[in-house]
UniProtKB/TrEMBL annotation:
Chain segments annotated as transmembrane: none
Region annotated Disordered, chain positions: 1-101
InterPro entries: LEA_1 (IPR005513)
Basic and acidic residues bias locations: 18-61
UniProt record similarity statement: Belongs to the LEA type 1 family.
Compositional bias of kind Low complexity: 63-77
GO terms, biological process: embryo development ending in seed dormancy
Organism: Pisum sativum (Garden pea)
Protein name: Late embryogenesis abundant group 1 protein
Domain of life: Eukaryota
Length: 101
């Protein structure tokens, strides 16, 4: 079951990476069409290359995270408990003690 979840998460990471790469390519083409000199065109290409590289790094980081989470769950570790505090690590998860209406 955990392997299936990991695979699904990896597919999502790959899809997101592909989307980001496509967006980078489209933006590069748009910037090249509106560029007025070769330097602007070169800058557009460099920006695209950086965005594509970042998308690939993000995908690899997500895959590593998914593998670690899957490995932890198979050992009975790494299970996350949500307190409903909105992601605030300093919150206790307890109410203020006020009157509820």
């Amino acid at each position: 079951m955990e392997k299936t979840k990991e695979t699904a998460a990896n597919i999502g990471a790959s899809a997101k990476s592909g989307l980001e790469k496509t967006k980078a390519n489209v933006q590069e083409k748009t910037e090249k069409m509106t560029a007025h000199n070769p330097l602007e065109k070169e800058l557009a290409t460099q920006k695209k290359d950086e965005r594509v590289a970042q998308a690939e790094l993000d995908k690899q980081a997500a895959r590593n995270h998914n593998a670690a989470a899957s490995a932890g769950n198979t050992l009975g570790q790494g299970r996350h408990h949500t307190t409903g505090t909105g992601g605030n690590p300093n919150a206790t998860g307890y109410g203020t003690g006020g009157t509820h209406r």
